[in-house]
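=== RUN LOG ===
request id: a7f3
mode: sequence -> structure
chains: 1
length: 384
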Amino acid sequence: MEVTLAGIALILVAFTFDAGPLFVCGAGLTAIGVATPAWIWLTARGARAERALHAERVVEGQPLEARIDVRRGPLGLPGAQLHDPLAQAEVSLARGLALVGGARCASVRVIARFERRGEQHLPPPRLIARDPLELARIVRTSEAPSQRVLVLPRTEPVSWLLSSGAVRPRSQEGDAPSDLLAAVNLDGLRPYRPGTPASRIHWSALARGAGLLERRLQADGDARPLVVLDGRGVGPVELLDAAVRAAASLALELARAGGCTLLLPGQRRVIGIDSDLLAWPAAHARLALVKGGPDTRAPALSQAGARRGPVFYVAAQPLERLPALLARLTRAPGMLVLPTASLSAGGLRGAGVALAPVLEVTGCRGFLLGARRRAGAHEARSAA
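=== RESULT ===
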Protein backbone atom coordinates (compact mmCIF):
# COMPACT_ATOMS: atom_id res chain seq x y z
CA MET A 1 0.00 0.00 0.00
CA GLU A 2 2.81 2.43 0.84
CA VAL A 3 4.47 1.74 -2.53
CA THR A 4 1.22 2.39 -4.39
CA LEU A 5 0.62 5.66 -2.55
CA ALA A 6 4.19 6.75 -3.24
CA GLY A 7 3.70 6.06 -6.96
CA ILE A 8 0.46 8.03 -7.06
CA ALA A 9 2.16 10.93 -5.28
CA LEU A 10 4.98 10.98 -7.82
CA ILE A 11 2.47 10.99 -10.68
CA LEU A 12 0.68 14.01 -9.16
CA VAL A 13 4.00 15.83 -8.72
CA ALA A 14 4.90 15.02 -12.33
CA PHE A 15 1.64 16.54 -13.62
CA THR A 16 2.01 19.58 -11.36
CA PHE A 17 5.54 20.48 -12.39
CA ASP A 18 5.43 18.88 -15.87
CA ALA A 19 8.29 16.50 -14.92
CA GLY A 20 8.27 13.51 -17.25
CA PRO A 21 10.89 11.40 -15.42
CA LEU A 22 8.86 11.56 -12.22
CA PHE A 23 5.81 10.32 -14.10
CA VAL A 24 7.70 7.23 -15.26
CA CYS A 25 8.91 6.48 -11.72
CA GLY A 26 5.44 7.02 -10.29
CA ALA A 27 3.84 4.74 -12.84
CA GLY A 28 6.40 2.02 -12.12
CA LEU A 29 5.90 2.22 -8.36
CA THR A 30 2.14 2.13 -8.78
CA ALA A 31 2.35 -0.94 -10.99
CA ILE A 32 4.63 -2.72 -8.51
CA GLY A 33 2.37 -1.81 -5.59
CA VAL A 34 -0.69 -3.21 -7.35
CA ALA A 35 0.86 -6.29 -8.99
CA THR A 36 2.89 -7.58 -6.05
CA PRO A 37 -0.06 -8.27 -3.66
CA ALA A 38 -1.95 -9.96 -6.49
CA TRP A 39 1.07 -12.13 -7.28
CA ILE A 40 1.57 -13.16 -3.65
CA TRP A 41 -2.14 -13.86 -3.25
CA LEU A 42 -2.08 -16.19 -6.27
CA THR A 43 1.01 -18.06 -5.02
CA ALA A 44 -0.42 -18.47 -1.52
CA ARG A 45 -3.79 -19.64 -2.79
CA GLY A 46 -2.53 -23.11 -3.70
CA ALA A 47 -0.16 -23.54 -0.76
CA ARG A 48 -1.02 -25.46 2.39
CA ALA A 49 0.67 -26.75 5.54
CA GLU A 50 -0.30 -29.89 7.47
CA ARG A 51 1.11 -31.14 10.78
CA ALA A 52 1.41 -34.77 11.85
CA LEU A 53 2.19 -35.64 15.47
CA HIS A 54 4.21 -38.77 16.18
CA ALA A 55 2.35 -39.24 19.50
CA GLU A 56 -0.68 -37.80 21.25
CA ARG A 57 0.77 -38.37 24.72
CA VAL A 58 4.13 -37.33 26.09
CA VAL A 59 5.71 -37.24 29.54
CA GLU A 60 6.83 -33.94 31.04
CA GLY A 61 10.23 -32.91 29.76
CA GLN A 62 10.43 -35.65 27.13
CA PRO A 63 10.66 -34.74 23.43
CA LEU A 64 7.59 -34.73 21.22
CA GLU A 65 8.35 -34.98 17.51
CA ALA A 66 6.12 -33.63 14.77
CA ARG A 67 6.41 -33.35 10.99
CA ILE A 68 4.97 -30.41 9.07
CA ASP A 69 4.45 -30.92 5.33
CA VAL A 70 4.28 -27.74 3.22
CA ARG A 71 3.04 -27.91 -0.39
CA ARG A 72 3.20 -25.01 -2.83
CA GLY A 73 0.86 -24.14 -5.64
CA PRO A 74 1.65 -24.14 -9.37
CA LEU A 75 3.15 -20.64 -9.16
CA GLY A 76 5.59 -21.55 -6.40
CA LEU A 77 6.37 -19.55 -3.28
CA PRO A 78 8.90 -16.76 -3.82
CA GLY A 79 9.24 -16.35 -0.09
CA ALA A 80 7.57 -18.19 2.79
CA GLN A 81 7.81 -18.64 6.52
CA LEU A 82 6.24 -21.37 8.61
CA HIS A 83 4.88 -20.54 12.04
CA ASP A 84 3.93 -23.41 14.34
CA PRO A 85 3.30 -23.37 18.13
CA LEU A 86 5.62 -26.35 18.59
CA ALA A 87 8.55 -24.52 17.00
CA GLN A 88 10.55 -21.98 18.96
CA ALA A 89 10.85 -19.61 15.97
CA GLU A 90 9.57 -19.13 12.43
CA VAL A 91 11.05 -21.47 9.84
CA SER A 92 12.13 -19.92 6.54
CA LEU A 93 11.17 -21.75 3.34
CA ALA A 94 12.30 -19.11 0.85
CA ARG A 95 14.47 -21.30 -1.40
CA GLY A 96 12.97 -24.74 -0.97
CA LEU A 97 9.59 -23.95 -2.61
CA ALA A 98 10.54 -21.48 -5.34
CA LEU A 99 9.03 -21.85 -8.80
CA VAL A 100 12.45 -22.23 -10.43
CA GLY A 101 14.74 -24.82 -8.84
CA GLY A 102 12.47 -25.53 -5.89
CA ALA A 103 10.52 -28.63 -4.90
CA ARG A 104 6.74 -28.87 -4.83
CA CYS A 105 6.73 -29.88 -1.18
CA ALA A 106 8.97 -29.58 1.85
CA SER A 107 8.95 -31.29 5.25
CA VAL A 108 9.95 -29.63 8.49
CA ARG A 109 10.82 -31.74 11.54
CA VAL A 110 9.96 -30.12 14.87
CA ILE A 111 10.88 -31.35 18.36
CA ALA A 112 9.20 -29.76 21.37
CA ARG A 113 9.11 -30.33 25.12
CA PHE A 114 6.40 -29.50 27.64
CA GLU A 115 7.41 -28.69 31.20
CA ARG A 116 3.94 -28.94 32.76
CA ARG A 117 1.35 -31.67 32.72
CA GLY A 118 -2.14 -31.25 31.34
CA GLU A 119 -3.94 -31.10 28.03
CA GLN A 120 -2.30 -28.85 25.47
CA HIS A 121 -4.28 -27.47 22.53
CA LEU A 122 -2.17 -26.88 19.43
CA PRO A 123 -3.65 -24.54 16.81
CA PRO A 124 -2.96 -25.45 13.18
CA PRO A 125 0.26 -24.18 11.58
CA ARG A 126 0.31 -20.94 9.62
CA LEU A 127 2.08 -20.34 6.33
CA ILE A 128 3.23 -16.77 5.70
CA ALA A 129 3.78 -15.98 2.00
CA ARG A 130 5.70 -12.84 1.04
CA ASP A 131 7.72 -11.39 -1.79
CA PRO A 132 11.52 -11.02 -1.55
CA LEU A 133 11.21 -7.28 -0.81
CA GLU A 134 8.41 -7.88 1.71
CA LEU A 135 6.09 -5.48 -0.04
CA ALA A 136 3.17 -7.88 0.43
CA ARG A 137 2.50 -10.45 3.10
CA ILE A 138 -0.34 -12.99 3.27
CA VAL A 139 -0.98 -15.40 6.15
CA ARG A 140 -2.63 -18.70 5.26
CA THR A 141 -3.87 -20.88 8.12
CA SER A 142 -4.43 -24.59 7.73
CA GLU A 143 -8.05 -25.71 7.67
CA ALA A 144 -7.26 -28.72 9.87
CA PRO A 145 -8.71 -28.61 13.40
CA SER A 146 -6.60 -27.97 16.45
CA GLN A 147 -4.72 -30.96 17.80
CA ARG A 148 -4.53 -32.05 21.42
CA VAL A 149 -1.53 -33.39 23.28
CA LEU A 150 -1.83 -34.91 26.74
CA VAL A 151 1.26 -34.16 28.84
CA LEU A 152 1.63 -36.86 31.51
CA PRO A 153 3.24 -36.23 34.91
CA ARG A 154 6.84 -37.33 35.21
CA THR A 155 7.63 -40.33 37.41
CA GLU A 156 10.83 -41.09 39.29
CA PRO A 157 12.04 -43.99 41.46
CA VAL A 158 11.13 -43.61 45.13
CA SER A 159 14.14 -43.08 47.39
CA TRP A 160 13.60 -44.74 50.77
CA LEU A 161 15.67 -42.92 53.39
CA LEU A 162 16.51 -45.96 55.51
CA SER A 163 19.98 -47.08 56.59
CA SER A 164 21.37 -49.43 59.18
CA GLY A 165 23.00 -46.64 61.16
CA ALA A 166 19.95 -44.43 61.36
CA VAL A 167 17.19 -44.51 63.94
CA ARG A 168 14.36 -46.24 62.08
CA PRO A 169 10.91 -45.15 63.27
CA ARG A 170 8.44 -47.94 63.87
CA SER A 171 4.69 -48.05 63.71
CA GLN A 172 2.37 -48.63 66.60
CA GLU A 173 2.43 -52.33 65.77
CA GLY A 174 6.22 -52.33 65.83
CA ASP A 175 6.68 -52.58 62.07
CA ALA A 176 9.43 -50.68 60.34
CA PRO A 177 8.52 -48.38 57.42
CA SER A 178 9.84 -50.94 54.97
CA ASP A 179 7.25 -53.37 56.34
CA LEU A 180 4.53 -51.06 55.01
CA LEU A 181 5.09 -52.70 51.64
CA ALA A 182 4.78 -56.25 52.96
CA ALA A 183 1.22 -56.45 51.69
CA VAL A 184 2.28 -56.26 48.07
CA ASN A 185 4.25 -59.55 47.90
CA LEU A 186 3.09 -61.62 44.97
CA ASP A 187 3.06 -64.92 46.87
CA GLY A 188 1.02 -63.61 49.80
CA LEU A 189 3.71 -64.59 52.32
CA ARG A 190 5.75 -62.71 54.89
CA PRO A 191 8.39 -63.64 57.48
CA TYR A 192 7.14 -65.60 60.45
CA ARG A 193 6.26 -63.56 63.52
CA PRO A 194 6.28 -65.12 67.01
CA GLY A 195 2.80 -66.06 68.13
CA THR A 196 1.44 -66.82 64.67
CA PRO A 197 -0.83 -69.93 64.71
CA ALA A 198 0.65 -73.07 63.22
CA SER A 199 -2.20 -73.23 60.70
CA ARG A 200 -0.84 -70.10 59.01
CA ILE A 201 2.74 -71.37 58.69
CA HIS A 202 3.73 -72.16 55.10
CA TRP A 203 5.29 -75.58 55.63
CA SER A 204 6.05 -76.11 51.94
CA ALA A 205 8.35 -73.10 51.93
CA LEU A 206 10.07 -74.41 55.06
CA ALA A 207 10.60 -77.78 53.39
CA ARG A 208 12.19 -76.09 50.38
CA GLY A 209 14.64 -74.30 52.66
CA ALA A 210 13.09 -70.85 52.26
CA GLY A 211 12.83 -70.34 55.99
CA LEU A 212 9.85 -69.96 58.26
CA LEU A 213 7.11 -68.00 56.49
CA GLU A 214 3.48 -67.32 57.31
CA ARG A 215 0.43 -66.77 55.14
CA ARG A 216 -1.37 -63.46 55.15
CA LEU A 217 -5.17 -63.43 55.45
CA GLN A 218 -7.12 -61.39 52.88
CA ALA A 219 -10.62 -61.66 54.32
CA ASP A 220 -11.04 -58.44 56.30
CA GLY A 221 -9.99 -55.68 53.92
CA ASP A 222 -7.96 -54.81 50.86
CA ALA A 223 -4.29 -55.33 51.65
CA ARG A 224 -3.05 -53.37 48.64
CA PRO A 225 -1.51 -49.98 49.37
CA LEU A 226 -3.72 -46.97 48.75
CA VAL A 227 -2.29 -43.76 47.28
CA VAL A 228 -4.51 -40.75 48.00
CA LEU A 229 -3.97 -37.42 46.21
CA ASP A 230 -5.32 -34.25 47.83
CA GLY A 231 -5.17 -31.27 45.47
CA ARG A 232 -6.53 -28.64 47.85
CA GLY A 233 -4.39 -25.60 48.51
CA VAL A 234 -3.86 -21.93 47.77
CA GLY A 235 -0.14 -22.13 47.01
CA PRO A 236 1.57 -21.93 43.63
CA VAL A 237 0.74 -24.47 40.96
CA GLU A 238 4.26 -25.93 41.23
CA LEU A 239 3.30 -27.48 44.59
CA LEU A 240 0.34 -29.29 43.03
CA ASP A 241 2.50 -30.50 40.14
CA ALA A 242 5.08 -31.88 42.58
CA ALA A 243 2.34 -33.68 44.52
CA VAL A 244 0.90 -35.18 41.33
CA ARG A 245 4.34 -36.43 40.27
CA ALA A 246 4.86 -37.96 43.72
CA ALA A 247 1.47 -39.71 43.61
CA ALA A 248 2.20 -41.04 40.12
CA SER A 249 5.67 -42.27 41.14
CA LEU A 250 4.35 -44.00 44.27
CA ALA A 251 1.45 -45.61 42.40
CA LEU A 252 3.74 -46.91 39.66
CA GLU A 253 6.33 -48.33 42.06
CA LEU A 254 3.73 -49.96 44.31
CA ALA A 255 1.89 -51.38 41.30
CA ARG A 256 5.08 -52.94 39.97
CA ALA A 257 5.69 -54.47 43.38
CA GLY A 258 2.36 -56.28 43.31
CA GLY A 259 -0.51 -53.84 42.89
CA CYS A 260 -2.06 -50.79 44.53
CA THR A 261 -5.10 -48.54 44.42
CA LEU A 262 -5.33 -44.83 43.65
CA LEU A 263 -7.85 -42.23 44.86
CA LEU A 264 -7.91 -38.83 43.11
CA PRO A 265 -9.34 -35.48 44.31
CA GLY A 266 -13.11 -35.36 44.16
CA GLN A 267 -13.38 -39.00 43.07
CA ARG A 268 -15.53 -41.51 44.92
CA ARG A 269 -14.08 -44.70 43.44
CA VAL A 270 -10.55 -45.97 43.72
CA ILE A 271 -8.55 -47.02 40.66
CA GLY A 272 -7.04 -50.48 40.93
CA ILE A 273 -3.62 -50.96 39.32
CA ASP A 274 -2.32 -54.52 39.21
CA SER A 275 1.23 -55.67 38.66
CA ASP A 276 0.59 -56.18 34.93
CA LEU A 277 0.13 -52.37 34.68
CA LEU A 278 -2.78 -52.72 32.24
CA ALA A 279 -4.69 -50.02 34.13
CA TRP A 280 -1.67 -47.71 34.46
CA PRO A 281 -2.06 -45.75 31.17
CA ALA A 282 -5.62 -44.73 32.08
CA ALA A 283 -4.61 -43.84 35.64
CA HIS A 284 -1.61 -41.88 34.35
CA ALA A 285 -3.89 -39.89 32.03
CA ARG A 286 -6.29 -39.06 34.87
CA LEU A 287 -3.39 -37.85 36.98
CA ALA A 288 -2.39 -35.51 34.15
CA LEU A 289 -5.82 -33.85 34.27
CA VAL A 290 -6.00 -33.32 38.04
CA LYS A 291 -7.09 -29.80 38.98
CA GLY A 292 -6.27 -28.18 42.29
CA GLY A 293 -7.05 -25.07 44.26
CA PRO A 294 -9.05 -23.99 47.30
CA ASP A 295 -12.34 -25.06 45.71
CA THR A 296 -11.17 -28.60 44.97
CA ARG A 297 -13.08 -31.29 46.81
CA ALA A 298 -11.25 -33.54 49.23
CA PRO A 299 -10.77 -37.21 48.34
CA ALA A 300 -13.77 -39.32 49.34
CA LEU A 301 -12.00 -41.55 51.84
CA SER A 302 -15.32 -42.94 53.06
CA GLN A 303 -15.78 -44.65 49.70
CA ALA A 304 -12.38 -46.38 49.79
CA GLY A 305 -13.70 -49.19 51.97
CA ALA A 306 -11.99 -51.10 54.75
CA ARG A 307 -8.30 -51.64 54.15
CA ARG A 308 -5.46 -53.54 55.73
CA GLY A 309 -2.70 -52.09 53.61
CA PRO A 310 -0.79 -48.85 54.11
CA VAL A 311 -2.16 -45.49 53.01
CA PHE A 312 0.07 -42.90 51.32
CA TYR A 313 -1.64 -39.50 51.64
CA VAL A 314 -0.10 -37.08 49.12
CA ALA A 315 -1.11 -33.44 49.66
CA ALA A 316 -0.22 -30.28 47.74
CA GLN A 317 0.44 -28.39 50.97
CA PRO A 318 0.57 -29.16 54.72
CA LEU A 319 -2.87 -29.74 56.20
CA GLU A 320 -4.02 -28.36 59.52
CA ARG A 321 -5.19 -31.84 60.38
CA LEU A 322 -5.57 -35.03 58.45
CA PRO A 323 -9.11 -36.32 58.02
CA ALA A 324 -10.13 -38.31 61.07
CA LEU A 325 -11.34 -41.03 58.75
CA LEU A 326 -7.77 -41.70 57.64
CA ALA A 327 -6.94 -43.20 61.03
CA ARG A 328 -10.00 -45.46 60.86
CA LEU A 329 -9.46 -46.40 57.23
CA THR A 330 -6.62 -48.85 57.71
CA ARG A 331 -4.96 -50.85 60.44
CA ALA A 332 -1.54 -50.17 58.97
CA PRO A 333 0.32 -46.91 59.60
CA GLY A 334 -0.19 -44.09 57.14
CA MET A 335 2.33 -41.89 55.43
CA LEU A 336 1.98 -38.19 54.65
CA VAL A 337 3.81 -37.01 51.51
CA LEU A 338 4.29 -33.25 50.99
CA PRO A 339 6.24 -31.08 48.53
CA THR A 340 9.56 -30.05 50.04
CA ALA A 341 8.96 -26.43 49.00
CA SER A 342 5.81 -26.31 51.15
CA LEU A 343 7.61 -27.32 54.35
CA SER A 344 9.02 -24.81 56.79
CA ALA A 345 12.72 -24.62 57.60
CA GLY A 346 12.21 -27.00 60.50
CA GLY A 347 10.46 -29.59 58.38
CA LEU A 348 7.25 -31.28 59.46
CA ARG A 349 6.49 -31.38 63.15
CA GLY A 350 4.17 -33.60 65.11
CA ALA A 351 3.48 -33.47 68.84
CA GLY A 352 6.21 -30.86 69.16
CA VAL A 353 8.85 -33.15 67.64
CA ALA A 354 10.38 -32.72 64.20
CA LEU A 355 9.52 -35.75 62.09
CA ALA A 356 12.26 -37.36 60.03
CA PRO A 357 11.37 -38.10 56.40
CA VAL A 358 11.38 -41.75 55.36
CA LEU A 359 11.14 -41.26 51.59
CA GLU A 360 11.87 -38.73 48.88
CA VAL A 361 10.42 -38.57 45.38
CA THR A 362 10.00 -35.84 42.74
CA GLY A 363 10.69 -32.98 45.13
CA CYS A 364 8.48 -34.37 47.91
CA ARG A 365 9.14 -36.00 51.25
CA GLY A 366 7.16 -38.66 53.07
CA PHE A 367 6.65 -38.83 56.83
CA LEU A 368 5.42 -41.84 58.77
CA LEU A 369 2.30 -41.15 60.84
CA GLY A 370 1.37 -42.86 64.07
CA ALA A 371 4.96 -43.97 64.71
CA ARG A 372 7.02 -43.98 67.90
CA ARG A 373 10.13 -41.94 67.48
CA ARG A 374 13.13 -42.51 69.66
CA ALA A 375 15.32 -39.75 68.30
CA GLY A 376 15.57 -38.02 71.68
CA ALA A 377 16.42 -41.22 73.51
CA HIS A 378 18.97 -42.13 70.86
CA GLU A 379 20.67 -38.75 71.22
CA ALA A 380 20.69 -39.11 75.00
CA ARG A 381 22.30 -42.53 74.75
CA SER A 382 24.84 -41.19 72.28
CA ALA A 383 25.72 -38.31 74.59
CA ALA A 384 26.11 -40.68 77.54
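=== NOTES ===
The chain has seven helices and 24 strands.
Confidence is low (pLDDT under 50) at residues 164-187, 371-384.
=== END ===
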